[in-house]
Backbone:
């Protein structure tokens, strides 16, 4: 990250997406990654909780998840900011386990009695959380792009969902359908298509 962030901003749309993700997963923890520019959160990468089968009360990630997040935000010309996650029955404040992850910034959404309570962002300085202002800004002036693809039956899946389905098909020895790409300019006679 290029400079120290002193406050975060988030569009109304992204704010609502994060709150809804937390509500949809109650009473369990959920989360993902945030990225953007100049302290404005402009990208969300939700992730599957890796500890779901063993312990639904914590949100677990692996190094591969962080690597994927950095790659995702770089691809979309955004800076990686932080992990976000929910506290379904707690305060929107980093736990000691959160602090020990070594992440510089944290975004935490809290819920109480199955309703949204608060959303706070923190910078960790010398293992001490410092709450940063979080402004909710209007969507106007920001272009929002959902990274979803549609198939012939009009079902929308994210890039990650499509990849996971293809991987499951490979592991279960089922066929995968790949869309044929249109020829690039200057390759009108090409019969090139995608293979994996």
Residues:
């Amino acid at each position: 990250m290029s400079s120290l962030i002193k406050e975060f901003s988030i569009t109304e749309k992204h704010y609502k997406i994060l709150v809804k993700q937390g509500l949809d997963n109650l009473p369990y923890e959920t989360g993902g990654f945030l990225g953007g520019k100049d302290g404005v959160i402009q990208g969300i990468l939700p992730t599957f909780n890796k500890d779901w089968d063993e312990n639904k009360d914590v949100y677990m990630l692996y190094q591969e998840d962080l690597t994927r997040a950095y790659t995702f935000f770089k691809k979309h010309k955004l800076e990686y900011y932080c992990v976000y996650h929910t506290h379904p029955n707690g305060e929107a404040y980093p736990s000691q386990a959160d602090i020990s992850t070594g992440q510089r910034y944290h975004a935490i959404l809290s819920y109480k009695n199955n309703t949204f309570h608060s959303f706070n962002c923190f910078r960790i300085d010398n293992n001490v959380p410092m709450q940063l202002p979080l402004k909710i800004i209007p969507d106007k002036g920001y272009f929002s792009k959902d990274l979803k693809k549609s198939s012939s039956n009009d079902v929308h899946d994210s890039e990650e969902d499509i990849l996971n389905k293809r991987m499951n098909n490979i592991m279960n020895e089922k066929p995968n359908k790949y869309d044929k790409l249109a020829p690039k300019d200057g390759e009108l006679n090409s019969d090139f298509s995608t293979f994996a």
